[in-house]
Structure formats: C-alpha cells, structure tokens
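User: I'm putting together notes for a lab meeting next week and I want to include a structural view of one of the chains we've been expressing. I don't have a solved structure, so I'd like a prediction I can at least talk through. The sequence is below, exactly as it appears in our construct file.
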Amino acid sequence: MQTSGKNSYQKLLYQISNQIFNLMGKLLVKEWDKRLLGLSQLPVKSVIDIGANEGQFARRIIKIFPDAYIYSFEPLNIPFQQLSQLANHHPQKITAFNLALGDSIQPVEIYSHLYFNPSSSILPTTQLCETVYPMVKKQEKILNLFMVT
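Assistant: Thanks for the context. Below is the predicted structure for the 149-residue chain, given as structure tokens.
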C-alpha cells in the first residue's frame, strides 16, 4: 500500500511540475512559430518527432504543417500515455511509437527526470546541469530498448 501511495504522489508531482514548466514555455516562447527559419513556407508532408514526450512539438507542428503526417517516438511510459491520447485524437495526422530510436538494438538506460520529464536523456546529468536546472536532480534510471534506424 505504501508503494502505491508513493507512486501516486510521484505521479502527481510529475504532472504538476510538467504543467508548470509547459506553461512557462508557452509564456516565454510566444513567437515560436516564427523561428522556423521559413520552413513553414515549404510543403512538408512528413515530420519525425524523436523524444516526443507528451506531444508538445506535435501539437504545434500540426498547426504549422496541416498537410504533414507526424511520426512521434517516446520511450518513457508516463509521457507516452499523453502522447498516445493525442495520436488517438488525431489518427489521420499522428502515429505514436513507445520506443527510442538509435543505430542498433541494445538495452540502454534512460535517465528519467521526475520533475521535468521533457529533459530526460540517455546521458547522465552533469553537476553544472543540476546546478542551473535543479528540477533535473530527482531522476530514476529506466531500462529501455533502442530500435535499429
């Protein structure tokens, strides 16, 4: 029972911290679409979103490139649940894959940042990173697989 309560607490902290950081991102990057260096003028038909997290990039790109199909890849299960819901909401536009991409099939550890999941990585954080971005200090290693590209 304690483990279940701890998991619920961690999930709640994750959701709250991600919502706060996503809100901050929206407030700080209002002109994001204009920074695509003219790409929005091209007839893009396919977009590959690697490390898609909860689908933040896909949500923006679907508006910029309405004729494009988005292939979103996210190896971590918790953010993949949100990404999967987005893909189910836009079945003609987005396919979500619950895996990481790489150049070989091999077990790999992913450092899941519990309080800011979008920054999770196969690379460990450095002391400088944790000092500048303290929200990445709390993390757990998750074993995942890479897919041959």
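A couple of points you could mention at the meeting. The chain has a mean pLDDT of 84. The first strand starts at residue 46 and ends at 50.

User: Perfect, that's what I needed.
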